């Protein structure tokens, strides 16, 4: 049996090496035994890149509950059991919002690696094995020995963090357990929540010392971990620990281990917000020192004419889809491969070829309405926004021609919105710059199509009439010969760090300082400062002057700025606000109706299901049987 286990582990290592060959453009040699993995520098570095392999897998948005269970978009329920999203189970993450999570065969099982999950404990074991053997090869330069070890430490810390964020208290795997260990040694217990967080932070701190502050040669090292990245992740980890889900949450007061020990902190600790604030400032300083700065549009391809309005929208969108730009603090190599699921049919060729664009990622109307009015306040607070009549029909005019097709009938709610609305969301009648059309003075502009272009088979369609425009590169052109301009997936942007810092400052009582960092994001988005906007345009002008009011503003600002980037689902969880978001039905327009009046009838697509128990993920029941030292996640 020991021989079989060793062969199995060696095989897993080989598979991981092969999977990561696209990650850092390194093709590792075949590995037959553990000893041969550390015979020289080349083999050792190849093993390190194997440790990176599942980091690449985490960049697949289908595996990210921050994307699939955020309420920002959904997959049509009548297609949920089909194979239209990259194979059986590819769309499974969206089922988290359908009440289909269970403990027998959990969705997004990252404990064991099933149902779009990743075997993170296996990845952690690889990191530990690497750290145990990095001293073996004699030809590794001292600098590389330290750096590679630091990278492995960061990776195992991040894999622990991903599990911690999902399950709460988890077993800490700081050392690789020998394959001949006894059953009792293998049956690890969950550590207390704060012990888990402290372990992740401590391990990241150990890694930072020996990581380069920034990647010097992007051509050969893009995707590897730097000190700036590690500090940014540390800031996120500490902010998560300080947040309501994990900081004195009464819902988990009775969560105890098998020996009766408390696994969740019983009381709220304000010092955690202070630690998080300090970490956010350190992360921002390190990112700036490494070259991070707000994105400036890098025009790609030939542009016939681009107005200032269009340039602003492409700048806001480009901060995410223009890969490896200075605003992206942490970006991973894997490309977002679902533009055809995200894009409307904006050309006649794409409308004819139903296989070119599926458009299944549907944005609920409620998500489109979190974006501000042009005055920089929520549309239901704006003194001059006719919120009650936002679903009335209105015709595109000259003043809005760069956002809405002139003389095209759409709804009033699409007018007079902030720039991030038009850069992030596509809707019926909305102007679409790109897809082969790069002249925004051309009156024959193509637009985000609507129900009239939906195919009759009702398989390749958008369920609401709203699309996540932000996730489609403007040069992508679907049709008979589709051209998809790929881009790497970004985990952390500079503006996201600004908003984390503003959140932490507000929670520590430093509202004035919080507003300064909040306004940096708003200025980048073309809006006035928060105090000015609320004083001049809101029905609740004093809202940003209180801690609770500013908290609401910061939360909404973060949901707007980072919309569709795989962050909202995690933010809403740690804020304990996801249950509120998913208690409302997902609504859209009647997209298969063939008249304008019929199309613009509100339609409830389905009612998402998300309860208290869904904030944390269940451990598979089989694991509880094989390891009796584990306790199930509360309410499961």
UniProtKB/TrEMBL annotation:
Q: Does the keyword Zinc-finger apply?
A: no
**Residue span(s) of domain SusD-like N-terminal:** 118-212
- GO CC term (a single one): cell outer membrane
Query: Where does the protein end up?
Result: Cell outer membrane
InterPro entries (alphabetical): SusD-like_N, SusD_RagB_dom, TPR-like_helical_dom_sf
Does Signal count among this protein's keywords? Answer: yes
Its name, as the record gives it, is Putative outer membrane starch-binding protein
